[in-house]
Amino acid sequence: MDNLTPLGQRALWAGFDAEWYRSRYPGIASESGENPWDLEAFYQAQGCRLGHSPNPYFDEAWYLIANRDVAAQVESGVFPSGFAHYLTTGFIDRSPHWLFSDRYYLAGNTDITRSRLEEAGFLNAYDHYLAAGDSEFRAGSLFFVPEFFDAAQPDMAKNMGPFSRFVQNHCAAGSSVRLSWYFDPEWYLQRYPRVAEEIAAGKWSCALQHYLINPTPRDFDPSPFFSEKYYDSVHVDVMPAVEKGQFRNAYDHFIQFGVFECRKPHPEIDLAAYFRAVDVQAEIQNGRFRDAFASYVSRRVNGGVSEEQPFVPEHLGKTLFSGRARSLRPLFARQKIDFLLQGSPAVSVILVMFNQIDLTLNALDSLRRCYAGEIELILADSGSADESRHIERYVTGAKRVRFNYNAGYLESCNAALAHVTAPVTLFMNNDILLERGAVEAALFRLAAAPENGAVGGKVVRTNGKLQEAGCIIWRDGSTEGYLRDADPNIPEANFVRDVDFCSGVFLAIRTDILKQLGGFDPIYKPAYFEETDLCIRLHEAGYKVVYDPAIMITHQEYSSGDASIATVMMARNQPIFRRKNRAFLRSKYPRNAELLVQARSPRMRGQRILFIEDRIPLRHLGSGFTRSNDIVGAMAALGHSVTVFPVYQPVENILQIYCDFPDTVEIIHDRELKDLAEFIRARSGFFDSLWIARTHNADRLMPIFMAESKHLPVKRIVLDTEAVAASRVTARNALHGKTDAEPLNKAARQELASAYSCHTIVAVNEIDAAIIRGAGFNDVSVLGHVRQLAPTPRPFAERRGFLFVGAIHDQDSPNLDGLEWFAGHVLPHLDTALPEDVPITIAGYVNRRIDLSNLGRARRINLAGPADDLAPLYDCHRVFFAPTRFAGGIPFKLHEAASFGLPIVASELLARQVGWPDGTNLLAGDITDPAQFAAQMLRLYGDEPLWHRLRDAALARLATENSEAFYRATLSEILENVGGL
């Protein structure tokens, strides 16, 4: 038997492996002789009828059990074996082994599609898996995670992939080794000792094979975390499907569907409650686990992993901080810290020393490593008696101001100020470490607006807790570091805002203003309240003091002196500060813990807006979240203070969240709907306007808003419908022949029932606005999409293929429906007309629960998945297509495609929604006529003059209707007129 399939292609699964066959079936050796050709002849004559497998990659018994129709054909003599059937036709869509699923492999590896397999010369997905995927540690089954097997068999030769090693060894190496979170072989063999006996007798190769192949699958549980009998009894809808043969057993249903519905797998496991934990959702979202059950089993086996910061006593933190500084002595002795100027300095740094040479060198080293630009370093030595007197031995290029006595912080800084020549002066302590980019961030923030007079940052103590995230001045003249003792990662500490003052631990100020104000007021000598007083004088001169969390400082608090002495000096200077600034203090809040949020920032000209969405609106999520992200960004650009609050706590971590928003936006990433009432009460009277994204959220939120109305601006509520769902549902029902649906106007009135509590309703286009007005609402505004033009440069002739970009969040997604219609009805028309090398690429966010393997099997289709940078995709493709058959709102994907300069073929529905006429800005296709839709795609693909005309017209329209200026002006008008104010 050659390893050629009937199509004349070679594949590992298609041959006869004599050596493996002899070792797998040792009893036949004496009957057939030692010659490999004799073994193959024996297999063809007798072995195949005995149920033997010809090679380690095809399992005859499994194939016949999994494919009852094939078993019947073998019994009737149509095929001599299941293997013969697989070689003939089965390889197209059947799985040949109990540890490989064609569907699972394609769904989990979206880069592997039918067209790509054909281009690379692979016969099917299993051919690719054996030839390449296995060695690349790709998974072909839920029950076989390659890393599990590889880690369990460290001494096994690694000349082939994990799966090949496993099956070549007759699976014996994995008899009791865990190969995934879905099956526990050790527990299984203890629970079912007879199986262990049968494995020893050679009936089964391992415990997992028995579980997946045994003839009574409902009699066995796969692990201590799943009960077949319990699942059957509780989830009564499952048994009929199992009895019909749709599932092998209850566990088969659970791992395919029940796990995503968070059904209980065991009487002692509440999977739904477990899944509600945000860190669990994050593990799944980030691909660490497929589902909540796998995460649960992992934690039970290995123990949970917490991301909470461990508690560190402050005295221990200080000890470690000082110890680190001392440990660097040899380094600083041999390598000087270089501050020699090569040009004009960007910043003058004033650092006061009083002994503590180790801490000083530590701080200066962090300064030098933090910023590579020109620094004018001015060291003010306030009467040091240690090695600090000889600082020039370790630091080059610094200016020195030396006192023969302990002059204190204030006098030392003012003396150093006379030597400053840079446009920015930075006061910094000698007991700090500057984190990455701190100086550059300070310079950027000061340059960002002419009214920014000073800037400080996030100060973290040596125990990992906050010292301050900006500082508050109370009416009685006392001060407070905002969020002291909090986690530095909490939302309230991680957005840019104006503050009363920032402490002198790190305070950057415009030099010209600083000198005009005469530096620190000497009445506060030797120290304390001098930087607070200076910031008040900056405010009174018309400048802002800004807190920027991008400036991060680690501070060994009170390292340069006794904390009790500091307390005495603060008590001495506070009355002085209060008397001097009596007029300013009258405008401040009285000291009250319940007023912290109000007091954390001076009142700005813009509004304080609470923006509520389903999820944190990250751009890659699509489906309206991109538009919400744009709205938040525009609000911030207009000078408003925006707080984003999600209905569902995000599964994304802050690394993914913060890069997607302006740094002035407060993103509440650690709370959700259940926390909203408490959040509102804690911010009583704080917000000026509420912006509710999506109509269904009005239904959720109105009971909370009514209960907490005394804390809210109940006369300034905006409902942004994003898209009127009634039109989408009506269109979908009509598409599927449902004639009993509600009329559109009635459905819209039902959908907008909670909108009567809102004062402005925002629609995404005029079509939706008309539906909303028809439902009885008059105060309706239209706010579409904003798109910056970024046309890709590649010429027409160098582009190839069609592109679709869109998000798929659920099984009812209009994008998924349209793509399935396209693959089943339009693509066949394209196949007959297009050259072989024209691909069809589908890109965008896809919920991990959505199986796109059917699309991936279609010829030509490449599943690209989500992409951080879409420009390369738009640059290499020639035509964008959007075969959407039902939808509401306005299709952002058309605006996005047009902004990248890619001409569009879209359904007539989308063309109407975006308001672009056929033949002018795009080509419209008929979703009831697949041949016509294909003809439009072919027309645009082959007509270069038409391509350029549509591209230019769409770009011109975007420049007018979707510009940033127009968008901000529209949004500004909406916010100004909320509630008729």
Please, could you describe this protein's structure?
By secondary structure, the chain is of the alpha/beta class. The chain has 45 helices and 27 strands. The model is unreliable at 1-9 (pLDDT under 50).
Task: List its traits.
alpha/beta, Spore Coat Polysaccharide Biosynthesis Protein SpsA, Chain A, disordered N terminus, 981 residues, ten-stranded mixed β-sheet, 5 domains, 27 strands
Give me the secondary-structure topology.
Blueprint: H1 18-24, H2 29-32, H3 36-45, H4 60-66, H5 68-75, H6 82-88, H7 102-108, H8 114-120, H9 125-133, H10 146-152, H11 162-168, H12 185-191, H13 193-200, H14 207-213, H15 228-234, H16 238-243, H17 250-258, H18 271-275, H19 278-285, H20 292-302, H21 314-327, H22 329-334, E1 337-338, E2 347-353, H23 357-370, E3 375-382, E4 395-396, E5 399-403, H24 409-417, E6 424-428, E7 432-434, H25 438-448, E8 452-461, E9 466-469, E10 471-473, E11 479-481, E12 497-498, E13 506-510, H26 511-516, H27 530-540, E14 544-555, H28 563-580, H29 582-585, H30 596-599, E15 608-613, H31 625-637, E16 641-646, H32 654-657, E17 666-667, H33 676-682, E18 689-693, H34 695-707, E19 717-720, H35 725-735, H36 744-751, E20 760-763, H37 766-774, E21 780-782, E22 802-805, H38 814-833, E23 840-843, H39 853-857, E24 861-865, H40 871-876, E25 879-882, H41 892-899, E26 904-907, H42 908-914, E27 923-925, H43 930-942, H44 944-961, H45 964-976
Parallel strand pairs: 1-4, 2-3, 2-6, 3-5, 8-14, 15-16, 15-18, 16-17, 18-19, 19-20, 20-21, 22-23, 22-25, 23-24, 25-26, 26-27
Antiparallel strand pairs: 6-13, 7-14, 8-9, 8-13, 10-11, 12-14
